[in-house]
Fold these 3 entries.
Entry 1:
Amino acid sequence: MTKLSFGAHPHLLGFEQLERLVERTAKTAAEGYPPFNIEAVSENEYRITLAVAGFREDDLGITVENRQLVVRGRQAEDESERLFLHRGIAARAFQRSFVLAEGVEVARAGLEHGLLHIELRRAMPDVVVQTIPIDRR
């Protein structure tokens, strides 16, 4: 029996990467740290907020790689000789990924009160309807 993929369907022209995006999204959904929110600020604007308490701006990195927003965090090693009786605050490195739709771009990012806010916006195309001329052959 042959498996029919999204990209092989005859009515989905140009969607060859859809199945790969779905698989990549499913893998990143299993991550649990750090916790995050995703908000729709307006019809074409979104905000991702990650709880990154204890991380400084220098400890965080935000990149967009192949339509995938990647947020990385790594704290500097604690050189002090503290003796913890209980250590419940996570101080581990993390990588959190979000797949961005075509036309969605990162507008800005900011760190406030232990929350990393990443503002996204959908670029509106200039042409909504495009008329294609027919050439004579």
Entry 2:
Amino acid sequence: MEGRRPVELRQLHYFVKVARKQHVTNAAEELHVAQSAISRQIHQLEDELGVPLFVRKGRNLQLTSVGKLFLERIEVVLADLERAVNEVHEFMDPEAGEIRIGFPHSLGIYLLPTVVANFRQTHPNVKFRLRQGTYNSLIRDVIKGDIDLSFISPFPEKHLNVSGKLLLQEELFAILPQVHALADQDTIRLEQLKDEAFVMFSDEYSLRNIVLEACAKAGFVPRIGFEGEETDTIRGLVAAGVGVSLLPEMALTEISQLQPAKVRVIDPVVTRSVGLIQRTGEKLPQVAEIFRHFLLDHFQVK
């Protein structure tokens, strides 16, 4: 519009931070900027757009309908801008680039540290920006461009907006308190746990559905005694006698003071798929493409 000042990049960064924090003070602390400066820039942005972006709800700020629409568009723009800057840096020196990768918590115990450490042996100057998330949040972050690649489980065989490669199939084991009557068995049938309380992941975690489907195949609905969001918590609670659970083998590699018994399940055999995804049709930054090829070689994927 004639006579209207152009929107500044700084205003957009401030807007996104306030929208995520829903609080000017918290945004100011994280950005290390005076609260008054952020408030002034947000007001200027609203004046330049001609619409209110926030409404106050108690001590917090909430996005208006148009504010939500604006945030959705601006996050894409800023992600594209950041990607462009990274591509310029990588063009000058790919070995000094940054890889933005997501992962579910259960892969952060062993798999992720292992592949990052191996990769850095030959690419010591490459930086990693890591983002942990749930199945749906990781797919959303890839689509939005917040991350370049993501480990994912289960691997989405068909998805409109993300694509990738299946890396491996991993077995899930029953974990039991050390004093459990079945703890010294080499193998069990899942049906033998039908009367036990299960320690389960909460709804947003894909491992929950894998366990529920396995129990359904075994002919029962598990009685849920506790829900959690961390494999360490679930493993510790089982070791403490709260219940039983199923966990991937990689989540059981770490030895702790409270250690549950690990028993193979043979009826049904329970597995999960682990894959690597990126945005469909998206050309990866050069350093991320190098890491993708490294992972495919590491897992012997053609």
Entry 3:
Amino acid sequence: MDYYIIIYIVLGILPSSIWLFYYLKEDVHPEPKRMILKIFLWGALITLPVLLIQIGLTNLLDKAGINLILKNLVYWFLIIAFSEEFFKYLVIRLKVIDSPDLDEPLDVMLYMVIAALGFAAVENIFYLFMPIGQMSFDQLISKILIIDIIRFVGATFLHTLCSAAVGYSLAISFCEVKARKISLIAGIVMATALHGFYDLSIITLPEPAKFIVPIVIILTLAFFVFSGFEKLKKMKSICKIN
């Protein structure tokens, strides 16, 4: 069974690795490999404290005795979506903003995406370690690949898009002194809202809405993010941060 663990880890990281390769191609001036690895690992490391916070808050929510609709809203939008988006942002705020490697607006979005991919990699591994019963090796690999593909086009992509949206708002906020906080808050709120609505729709909506709504959310975010990439590419340098 030891080799199963290696398979889980390798295939859990695979979706993030593919998306990482894709996003890095968007950067005309590649970031230092050590910085990419550092932020990816920090994104991965925050998964554990986020998970512990989510478990603790969920236990409190269960004891609150509120109605099911409000409970679902609090759980998916605040406990899950907001905690994940905020902590991914926190990695960039603490580890990137004062770094000399941050030298162009696009870097902010890219580093947010890299942190998100580290987070998603560990999350994917957690999902693969969930009990799936007695299976042959071929059945196990097939099951893992199906999960990988679903999360590649779904949850992993969602993490990158939400974080990129926050990264775009953060980059723009550097150049909008009077509306700096509003711009950043708007990005986090948008990412949290779409992330929460994505999760909530998959769990609670009936078919075919549970498939249509997430696709619309992904496409909407993708349009916003890739438009943001193009806009930031035209900005020559980071505006004053402090």
